[in-house]
Amino acid sequence: AMAADRALAMATCTAPVNIAVIKYWGKRDTDLILPINSSLSVTLHQDQLKTTTTAAASRDFTEDRLWLNGAEADVGHPRVQACLREVRRLARKRRGGSGDSATCSLLSYKVHVASENNFPTAAGLASSAAGYACLVSALARLYGVEEELSEVARRGSGSACRSMWGGFVQWQRGERPDGTDSLAHQVAPETHWPELRVLVLVVSGEKKPVTSTAGMQTSVETSPLLKHRAQVVVPERLAQMIQHIQERDFEGFGQLAMRDSNQFHATCLDTFPPIFYLNDLSRHIIALAHRYNAHHGHTKVAYTFDAGPNAVIFALADTVDEFVEVVRRSFPPATNGDQFVRGLPVGSATLPQELVAAVVTEPVPGAVQYILHTKPGPGPQLVDDPSQHLLGADGLPRR
After folding, report:
1. 245 within 8 A of 376, measured Cβ to Cβ
2. pTM, two decimal places
3. 275 near 214, Cβ under 8 Å?
4. Phi and psi for 316 in degrees, rounded to 5?
5. Residue 26 region, left (φ>0) first, then alpha (ψ -120 to 50), else beta?
6. C-alpha to C-alpha distance for 165 and 44, rounded to whole angstroms
7. Where is this region: Disordered (predicted)?
8. What is the set of domains in the chain, with CATH numbers?
9. Cβ-contact 363, 330 below 8 angstroms
10. What's the pLDDT band for 4 if we cut at 50, 70, 90?
């Protein structure tokens, strides 16, 4: 326990990004962030994509403050406040009547929170899942809360509940109106499928035409296809996807991931007025993946797209070198030839002439900004090294 007179308490955590292979789209309760269907995701490795968050409490702080990537942000944001409130509530409940004076005083102090991503937010890689998972993890550490935290993270951003676990994660829709059973749990750890790899094709840093929050509510209100998807299609697909993961069946996993991504974007098109998250380049990548698989006679790569134009490609490790070379030939890098592939190392590959002829049609130079090579990874981590704190002893950002 913390000495009650200690001026400053601090905790730092990291948390991962996740990519849904059975998509969440649509809330049945916008305040509690309760989904109309369950979803399933793959947690990506934090060596390539992570958020780091430091939370500090001190009796010297005069107000709650928040910094994102070095710039001060609105700590009064309702979703940030919901997470703060819920973690503090759990901390009080945990203390019960024991009245541990250190935690009691800690709970009465204002907090400072600093958060940083090791990837460009503008790249259209959803940072809210990692951000809120990390916020909740750091606050929970600060206050000594060890309860199930995916429900709290969900109050920040729906998909954030899935970032509370590593590997393969299911977010159960839940039935209760209060959301207490709308939780995430791990289907399999990241070690379960060591050969699985992920390639993020970053196509453009444009801002989304419609935010996910606004888009999904319009879809709920106007798309009959979305209703059919939530009630009929998703429950069956979830069971299938879990089985493919358990059996490490890439053929089944990849096919279903592509179908589910396509249907999610079809519900966006079925929304009125329609929403377009994919662009010409996204469609070009989809066609490329299908030509590549057709050439090989089975599913070697699978795409999935969230609410934006970036492609996330799943493949097994032995396919990566060749497919990256196919992407390089299809979208020759404009200037950053050496920086085109980032993350895990990628070997060189010589493409057979018949593959080039069948798969690489008209190259579009400079269309893909870069490829990030990563793999499934673990859930939130505590950072023990005090030199890694984002806040200094004065409670202000270090850099």
Report:
1. no
2. 0.95
3. no
4. -85, 155
5. left
6. 10
7. 377-399
8. 8-190+381-388 (3.30.230.10), 196-374 (3.30.70.890)
9. yes
10. very low
